Amino acid sequence: METNLCVAGFGGQGVMTLGKFLADATCNSTDKNITFFPSYGAEQRGGTANCFVVISDDEIGAPLGDVMDDLIVLNGPSLKKFLPTLKKGGNLFINSSIVTDEITRTDIKVVKAPVTELALEMGNAKVLNVIMLGVYVGYTEVIDPAVVWATIEHKLASKAKLLPLNKAAFEKGLEIGRSQK
Q1: Domain 2-179's class?
Q2: Domain boundaries in the chain?
Q3: Average pLDDT, stretch 99-126?
Q4: Do 87 and 68 touch, CB atoms closer than 8 A?
Q5: Which of left, alpha, beta for 156 (phi over 0: left; psi -120 to 50: alpha)?
Q6: What residue ranges in 60-131 does DSSP mark as E strands?
């Protein structure tokens, strides 16, 4: 089994952190092979950012391919850029708070989650990526959610006051992902 995931959005939306959390959790808790390949735009915050995560039972020949099994888009420009790379039968995860384009492809599964809106309701826009990570893990079951949470908890250990908010965000995402199966 091999899963190719692309995560894309604006810089500052936590695109790289989402990808790193998933890659680290899988690498540290399974015998699967993992690659994480970041790509930044010329700007930092507000510029484009995307990353690729490949999870495989076998050796990984290249860090990214031309065809994605799963695609997470956090903004409209990323949808336009990466939707053609999503394979037939693939999963498209959309931040429906800001991505309002109509999806005309009928050969993919679309999972919508208003992660920006939910993060703002929770009091911190920065947790939108953790919500979306929960959506992805809850829907795909690519890795045990407890393992992903343990990785998040470890990575944020120096910011303990942020843990309750991130835990709630991750749980909210899991709930959304599971409900759309």
Answers
A1: alpha beta
A2: 2-179
A3: 96
A4: yes
A5: alpha
A6: 68-73, 86-95, 109-113
